[in-house]
Amino acid sequence: MYNNEEETLFLEETILDDNTYTYLLFLNSDKVKRITYSYDVKLIEKAHKFPLLIAINIILLLIISFFYTLRVTKPISRIVDKIIDLSNGKYLKPEANKSIYYDVEECLNQLSDRLYSNKQEREKLETMREEWISNISHDIKTPLTSIIGNAEIIADTQYEINDEIREKRCNTIINKSEYIKTLVEDLNLSTRLKSNTLILNKKKINIVSLIRHVLIEIINDEKYNDGNISFNYSDEEIMLELDEDLIKRVFINLIINAYVHNTNDVKIKINIQKINENNIYISIEDNGKGVSEDELNNIFKRYYRGTNTRNKTEGSGLGMAIAHDIIKAHGGNIKATAKLKEGLKIDIRFLP
């Protein structure tokens, strides 16, 4: 190729019918554009290798993805298995797996422990409930037998009984009937307290006066008139907004409980302290037999009966649970502290 400012000459060869021909081509310079192509052989060789590199990278990426997915999905599969086990009532054993989901697995282990504890608690409560049903059935059957027996004697004209014996048998029927009525009322009250269906009839009452009347009522009962009770209070008048009948029931239950679980010479101390207008502290303490740690843990549970009672055939096993639930329904706190042979102390605190 030859070019100057005016025209450009192209010199080319071609072969036709085995003959070689040379031809010249002249073009004006303004009609011609020059394009120069250049290339690097090494780059072309590398370009041929590029698909192979891509294929290798894809394979490596797939291998890495496989192992990463395996690492991620394996603990997830283990977590799913644990959840299935929990749903089937199979509780988990703690495992030291430091996986990427360690916190999740640890929470599952804690949930398993809590569910297992709840199951044990339910089983224990169910055992206590069955024992309570057995005891309450006996408690009702015994006075019913007495009621039926005395009623049959009174009704049978073949028996010749004087007025004194008739009156005695009638009183027995009345007392046994009252006892059964109390058992049924305890069960009804406990159920309503637990289900939060009991409406409190609150009004301002003097708690000192209320407890004083409770003590008078108990001491006038021949079963408890030999008791030794001391009653102390910081103020003659301590007003609280309470359901009078229910709170009266609380202190009757707690004080009588101190009697029936101890010997006749037990000393009972009742103390009321007004810390401020909205903070009233009441304690009922005895120097009796006390209770074991297991009894202390169950003292406010439904159906539970202590072992140190004077008369094992009486009592619904709901008295302490009812007292606990009534105080809680009033927004107060109640707790028990005790040791064997060192007595029992019940602390009650009414808060605003």
TrEMBL record:
What's the superkingdom here? Bacteria
Task: Keywords in alphabetical order, please.
Answer: Kinase, Membrane, Phosphoprotein, Transferase, Transmembrane, Transmembrane helix, Two-component regulatory system
What residue stretches are annotated with the Histidine kinase domain?
135-352
Q: Which reaction does it catalyse?
A: ATP + protein L-histidine = ADP + protein N-phospho-L-histidine
Q: Which Pfam families match?
A: HATPase_c, HisKA
What molecular function terms (GO) are annotated for this protein? phosphoprotein phosphatase activity; phosphorelay sensor kinase activity
Enzyme class, first EC level, given as a word: transferase
Q: Where in the cell is it found?
A: Membrane
Give the enzyme's EC designation: 2.7.13.3
Q: Which SUPFAM superfamilies match?
A: ATPase domain of HSP90 chaperone/DNA topoisomerase II/histidine kinase (SSF55874), Homodimeric domain of signal transducing histidine kinase (SSF47384)
**Quick one: a GO cellular component term?**
plasma membrane
Which spans of this chain does the record mark as coiled coil? none
Concerning Gene3D superfamilies, the annotation shows:
1.10.287.130, Histidine kinase-like ATPase, C-terminal domain
- Please name the GO terms of the biological process aspect recorded for this protein, alphabetically: cellular response to phosphate starvation
The transmembrane segments are 50-70
Q: Is-annotated flag, keyword Transmembrane helix?
A: yes
What protein name does the entry list? Answer: histidine kinase
InterPro entries, sorted: BphY/WalK/GraS-like, HATPase_C_sf, HATPase_dom, His_kinase_dom, HisK_dim/P_dom, HisK_dim/P_sf, Sig_transdc_His_kin-like_C
